[in-house]
Specification:
Elements (H helix, E strand, L loop, with lengths): L23 H14 L3 H12 L4
């Protein structure tokens, strides 16, 4: 029998989802930042939260 398929278990699973509403200008700036820096919107939010919460 083959091993289980699917996503592998990670050390720190991301189990919570956060949603936010932003205006059109902020969305455009976010899109441009993501393209320029080759990051996802999720990564930008995580980085921002860590900065606000004084974590590294």
């Amino acid at each position: 029998m083959s091993p289980r398929t699917g996503r592998p278990i990670v050390g720190n699973p991301k189990t919570y989802e956060v949603k936010a509403r932003i205006d059109e200008e902020t969305h455009k700036e976010l899109e441009e930042y993501c393209k320029k820096n080759s990051v996802t919107k999720t990564e930008v939010v995580r980085i921002g939260l860590k900065k606000v919460l004084n974590k590294k």
